[in-house]
Each structure stands twice: as C-alpha cells, then as structure tokens.
Design goal:
With 338 residues, the chain is an alpha/beta fold. The protein is built from 12 helices and 12 strands.
C-alpha cells in the first residue's frame, strides 16, 4: 500500500464525512438505472434519513462489460438508500454522449449530479450549465486534475499519477526490467496518468500499448502479438480489472514468461491473486467513490458540508492487494463491494 502523506491525508475528510452522515434519522428508498438510459428503480425500504426526498443523477463513462462500475454503483445505491435519495444512473463511454446525459439531468432539475471526468474538456460546458442552474456537481473516479477548474464542489477518487508512481516502485521491488502498460481507451486522461506515473518511478523500460477496450478478443490478440514480438517483456500492466485475465491468456498463448499486474479489482481477480496467476492489483476502492459522491450531495444540501473544504480531494486509494492481504479483501469482493 502507498503510504505517502497525500494518501494518509484523506483520513480527516473521511472522518468528518462519516460524522456528518451520522446525523441521518429515519426512512429511505432509492432507484437506479441502466446504461445510456436513465431508469428509475421502485420500492421503498427501511433506512435512516427523514430529510426531504432528493433526486441525484450519477453519470459515468462506463463501457459495456466493465464490471468496475457495478461496484461504484453499489456504493452509490447504498448511500442513496440511507439518505432518502432517488438515484438515477446513466453511462456512456463516448464523451459527447456522456455530456448529453448530464444535460438530461440538468433538464430534469435534479438536486445534485455526480460525474466522472475521463475527458474533462467534453464536460466543461454542461457542468457550467448545471452550475448556472444552481445544481451542485461533484466528481468521482476521473478528473482529479480538473474538477476545481470546472467548478465542481468536491471530488472523490484516486490520484492516478500517485497510483502509477506506487506501481512503478512495486515493479522495481519485484525485479521487473521491462514492462508494457496497456491502455484500453485512448484519450482517457486518468489512464494516461497511470502509465505516466509508472514511468516516473520505474527504473526499467516501460512501453505503452493501446488496445480497443470494447472488444476483448481484439485486446487479447493485440497483447499476444506484442508479447510474441518482444520476449524481453517481463510484466504486463493492465489498467482495469476485466483486462487482467485476458492478459494472462495472452501470456499463455504467446509462450511469454511475463507476469501480470493490474489497476483495479473485482472478485474474479482476488481468486487469481490467491492462485498467483495475477501478482497484485492497485485498489482505488470504487464502492467508496460511489458512496461518498452521493452522500456528499445529501450532506451539502442538508448541512452545507464540503468534504475536503471544497479545495482538496478525498482520496480513496491507492492500496495494493497481493497474496499478503487478498484473503481478507476477497470476503468483501464476494459481496461485490471491493
């Protein structure tokens, strides 16, 4: 786990957030929706908040099949249930389409919006429209370098450069000499920052390999071809949990002796880490990102709170998961919350 001061500094913000959340009293329900279409759930369940009903839109750049976002959404739904919030979820990996989904939320006059900023330039105008409509907007997961410039009130996520630097040091620790960093979405600033961070601290040679993350067979064939072409690669670093098992298949098919490490985590990966087919993962705690983003909007509306004072992000990672701690993490991953 990265023990840098920036990572430790998230503690006070999280403590303050949890303390404020404890003000909630009784009764809540939430709704959620699918990709590209804002769908509302139904039904009520017992909870804690008795504050007026709110509607919050969560709009991400989730690509089809990327299970990382299922964990983010579970955290958001848990906060919505507690806080008497109707949660409206929508997603699209295309930046223009994502901006349109945010515009839909503005037109519906929701009480708050939580968004990812994988491509911040595409979000600039629509965030300004939300701000003009007096709708608070918070960021999560992607956009740590841009959230203040765009006028968001708070941000919850991982410093991708710091996370990359931590992984670069880890590669040195395990003796890697040549690694390839696999980027599954060209133009995604967070993914680029991860590879750039690795390059800053890794004393070996790092190459960047672009793949089409929406086509897993293509991902496998591209990585396989690279490993066949360069037998000196001893580590493949993927930037998302679903791509790590595919990289393992590429290693096997190419006859390479490379090992696989990854950013992000899911329950399938915990088993692979236990078996040793994947060496380690950098966990940014996506459940926490979704939970805190939604909860922060409730706190802002009902108690005027700003996590991080409105100036500092609340960091949820990085944390390494390897054989030394995977058994404990696996128990939570089995529930879909890690």
């Amino acid at each position: 786990m990265d023990r840098s001061p920036r990572y430790r500094s998230r503690g006070p913000a999280l403590v303050a957030l949890a303390a404020a959340a404890a003000l909630a009293l009784a009764g809540c329900s939430s709704g959620s929706g699918g990709k590209k279409a804002e769908e509302e759930g139904s039904g009520a369940s017992a909870g804690k908040a008795n504050t007026p009903r709110m509607t919050v839109a969560l709009v991400t750049h989730q690509a089809p099949g990327d299970t990382f976002w299922d964990i983010v959404r579970k955290g958001a739904e848990a906060a919505a249930q507690k806080d008497n919030i109707k949660l409206v979820y929508s997603a699209d990996p295309n930046a223009g389409n994502q901006a349109n989904l945010v515009q839909n939320a503005v037109d519906q006059k929701v009480d708050g919006i939580a968004i990812t900023l994988a491509k911040p330039d595409a979000m600039k105008d629509v965030v300004a429209k939300a701000t003009a409509a007096k709708i608070p907007v918070v960021g999560l997961n992607s956009g740590l370098s841009d959230w203040r410039k765009l006028g968001l009130t708070e941000f919850f996520g991982q410093d991708e450069t710091v996370a990359g630097e931590a992984l670069g040091r880890k590669l040195d620790e395990v003796g890697s000499k040549k690694a390839v960093c696999v980027i599954q979405e060209q133009g995604n600033i967070g993914l680029t920052q991860r590879c750039d961070g690795v390059k800053k601290t890794f004393s070996g040679t790092l190459e960047t390999l672009y793949v089409n993350g929406t086509d897993m067979p293509s991902v496998k064939s591209t990585i396989t071809a690279k490993l066949k072409q360069d037998k000196g690669i001893d580590y493949v670093v993927t930037l998302g949990a679903p791509f790590a098992p595919t990289a393992v298949q590429s290693v096997e098919e190419s006859g390479s002796k490379a090992k696989v490490a990854t950013f992000d985590l899911n329950k399938e990966l915990t088993g692979a880490i236990s078996k040793g087919t994947i060496q380690f993962a950098v966990d940014q705690q996506p459940y926490l990102q979704g939970y805190l983003a939604v909860d922060s909007l409730w706190l802002y509306k009902n108690n005027g709170n700003y996590s991080g004072g409105g100036e500092q992000p609340v960091l949820t990672g990085p944390a390494f998961v390897d054989k030394s701690n995977v058994d404990r993490v696996a128990a939570f991953a089995a529930k879909g919350t890690r």
